[in-house]
Specification:
Layout lengths: L1 H11 L5 E3 L6 E5 L4 E6 L1 H5 L7 H11 L3 E6 H18 L4 E4 L3 E5 L2 H11 L9 E7 L4 H4 L12 E8 L3 E2 L9 E10 L3 E4 L1 H13 L3 E7 L6 H5 L3 E5 L4 E5 L5 E3 L11 E5 L3 E7 L3 H5 L1
Parallel strand pairs: 3-4, 5-11, 10-12
Antiparallel strand pairs: 1-2, 2-3, 6-7, 7-8, 8-10, 9-10, 12-17, 13-17, 14-15, 14-16
Length: 291
């Protein structure tokens, strides 16, 4: 069972956990020191279970009202990205190498560099973006914070985090009509590392260069309760509806349901996630944007 590999990981790092009985057809364990639930969703079990489309979304909201966190861990995600999943879980348990953004500097990076980094360090991989920024660890700090195996060139800065953004969009309707909005599409740090203040430094570099009226983004509720956005001054707008996907039972490839035409139904399982939380960081109010 793939879940047993997670148990082994936790035991190896002496992270205590206990099995929990919830009103869920899927296996749940609880990490009391981290106030964290892991919800293991096997595809075969999902296929043979009837649950409402808001099941995972409602489960997340229930846990969040108790001031705890939950990861809805799908079998296909673990099968395709086990090393990255392990790193994310350990990071949420406090097991990652910490360094400070003051040891880093920000530069614009090209598309190939951003794509390679995000495909290796973000569970949802890269997406098309307009602006790409990299956070580089200064060369004099490499030996202090980075394992020698990860140092590509001595005396050269190392790319430690990436943030990508959309093009600007002129808002024509609603409360933000007349403003220019951008979207934070992806943020990731080098696997097994945590940069204190890293996202804030990248976001400030972007906003200083482009002067947006606001920046919006989405927190994936399968993995996040959005607290990191709120720390950065983002405001919650809404909980979005669950997204639906088709998963290939043999390869574990996942396709958005809107792009699944031509897929042979017998080879795929249709699933839905916990949805997202939409956030916005307002930098200029509507009146200032008009001036």
């Amino acid at each position: 069972m793939w879940q047993s590999k997670i148990y082994t990981l936790l035991e190896k790092h002496q992270i205590s956990f206990e099995k929990k009985t919830f009103d869920s057809p899927f296996e749940v364990i609880y990490l009391p020191q981290q106030l964290l639930f892991l919800h293991f969703i096997s595809l075969e079990n999902f296929k043979n279970t009837t649950i409402p489309p808001d099941f995972f979304k409602d489960f997340s909201e229930k846990i969040q009202t108790q001031h705890q966190r939950i990861i809805h861990l799908w079998e296909d995600v673990y099968a395709q990205n086990s090393a990255l999943v392990n790193a994310r879980i350990l990071a949420m348990c406090g097991y990652s190498k910490r360094l400070n953004a003051r040891h880093c500097f920000v530069e614009r990076i090209d598309n190939p560099t951003a794509v390679i980094f995000l495909n290796e360090n973000h569970l949802q991989a890269s997406v098309k973006s307009k602006f790409k920024y990299g956070l580089f660890l200064k060369a004099q700090y490499l030996e202090k914070f980075i394992d020698s195996a990860l140092i590509q060139e001595k005396n050269q800065p190392l790319l430690i985090a990436v943030a990508t953004f959309s093009a600007g969009r002129a808002m024509k309707y609603g409360e933000r009509a007349g403003t220019r909005s951008y979207e934070l599409l992806r943020f990731a740090t080098l696997k097994n590392h945590h940069v204190v203040g890293g996202m804030d430094k990248l976001l400030k570099a972007f906003t200083n260069e482009h002067q947006p009226d606001d920046v919006m983004s989405y927190a994936d509720r399968d993995w996040s309760d959005g607290r990191s956005y709120e720390t950065l001054g983002f405001q919650k707008i809404e909980n979005t509806s669950p997204q639906h996907f088709m998963i290939n039972k043999q390869t574990f490839e996942r396709f958005n349901i809107n792009h699944s035409e031509g897929l042979k139904e017998q080879s795929f399982i249709q699933i839905f996630n916990a949805g997202s939380i939409k956030y916005i960081k307002i930098l200029h109010d509507k009146e200032m944007a008009k001036d």
